[in-house]
Amino acid sequence: MSEALAVIDDAAPLMPMSMGTTFHAYKAMQGEIDKAMPDQIMTIQGRQFRKKGYWRAVRAAFGLKVWCVSEERIEVNGDWGYSVLYRAEAKNGMSADGDGVCMASEKSERQRSIHNVRSHAHTRAFNRSVSNLV
Q: Distances in Å between the alpha carbon of 21 and those of 9, 94, 134?
């Protein structure tokens, strides 16, 4: 017989609140991060997007592990770039992948270096893995 007060299955997702309550709590937290870091939100063609620093803050707030799963240099119709896959994992074992691709043609002539194209693909994949999980 166990002396534990309660046996908890660590692999099971924790749902301390109803789904609606959890969603509203997340939206409230998102609003707080938005207010705390207005410089991490950019507007492109009338739509708002969260920047790299935003997703780094979310990773820290949720205590996520995030790592690069794969990276590949690609060539398409004479253009070149990188395709990257990241995985984010929560403490309860849930995970989500995020892909990111960046092509040299997306960059201005001055910014068209291997470093800039590759790092942009990594940033996209990291951000998507975190956003897909939370």
A: 23, 20, 15
pTM (two decimals): 0.78
Task: Please report where in the chains the tokens 């270096």 appear, as a residue.
Answer: 113
- State how far the Cα of 53 lies from the Cα of 56, in Å rounded to an integer: 5
**By CB neighbour count within 10 A (0-12 exposed, 13-18 middle, 19+ buried), where does 81 fall?**
buried
Residue whose structure tokens are 């949720």: 62
**Integer Cα distance of 74 and 68 in angstroms:** 17
Distances (CA, A) of 125 to 76, 83, 118: 19, 9, 11
What would the two tokens of residue 71 be?
A: 């990276």
- Tokens 């937290």 -> residue: 29
Using alpha carbons, select from 76, 84, 88 the residue that is nearest to residue 121. 84
Q: Which two tokens stand for residue 76?
A: 């398409």
53-69 per-position pLDDT tens digit: 999 999 998 899 999 99
Ramachandran category for residue 125: left, alpha or beta (phi over 0 → left; psi -120 to 50 → alpha): alpha
CA 119 to chain centre: 15
> Cβ(87)–Cβ(129) under 8 Å?
yes
